[in-house]
């Protein structure tokens, strides 16, 4: 099997994934998964696509992640893994991943700060006198 690459985005995080057949090694920015994402919930998010399709120990994964926070990076990586698995075997994996919502790009972004106020929606405190 050749190397399959895919891209995933979430908030300002971008994940580039390179998937190849192997023993299930996950390397993120030249570090193992358990070192890069120390929280168990983030590790679960990353492995979610593999667990749903039953391919947890079948592929080696090399990922480059840039931007965003830890949660956004984990969700960007999940989307990239799901897209890469769809390229591997479309008819077997696509329906499972789509019903669980892993192929949908979460388009919610941070709203920009407006001039004349401290945040996006927050106003400065009103003073009558």
Structure notes:
The chain is of the alpha+beta class and 129 residues long. The protein has one domain: Ribosomal Protein S5, domain 2, CATH 3.30.230.10. The protein is 36% helix and 22% strand. It has helices at residues 33-36, 40-53, 70-88, 90-99, and strands at 4-10, 13-21, 26-28, 31-32, 59-66. Strands 1-2-5-3-4 form a 5-stranded mixed β-sheet. Helix 2 (40-53) runs parallel beside helix 3 (70-88) and helix 3 packs antiparallel against helix 4. It is elongated, with a radius of gyration of 18 Å. The mean pLDDT is 94.
Write the H/E string, N to C: EEEEHHEHH
In percent terms, what proportion of residues is strand? Answer: 15-25%
Fraction of residues in helix: 25-40%
CATH fold descriptor? Ribosomal Protein S5, domain 2
Question: How many β strands by DSSP?
Answer: 5
Biggest beta sheet attributes:
5 strands, mixed
């Amino acid at each position: 099997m050749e190397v399959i690459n895919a891209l995933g985005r979430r908030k300002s995080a971008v994940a580039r994934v390179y998937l190849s057949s192997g023993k299930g090694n996950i390397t993120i920015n030249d570090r193992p998964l358990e070192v890069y994402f120390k929280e168990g919930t983030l590790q679960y998010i990353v492995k979610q696509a593999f667990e749903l399709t039953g391919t947890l120990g079948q592929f080696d994964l090399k990922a480059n992640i840039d931007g965003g926070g830890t949660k956004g990076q984990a969700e960007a990586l999940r989307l990239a893994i799901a897209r890469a698995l769809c390229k591997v075997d479309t008819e077997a994996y696509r329906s499972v991943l789509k019903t669980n919502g892993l192929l949908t790009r979460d388009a919610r972004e941070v709203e920009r700060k407006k001039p004349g106020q401290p945040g996006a929606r927050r106003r400065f405190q009103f003073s009558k006198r």
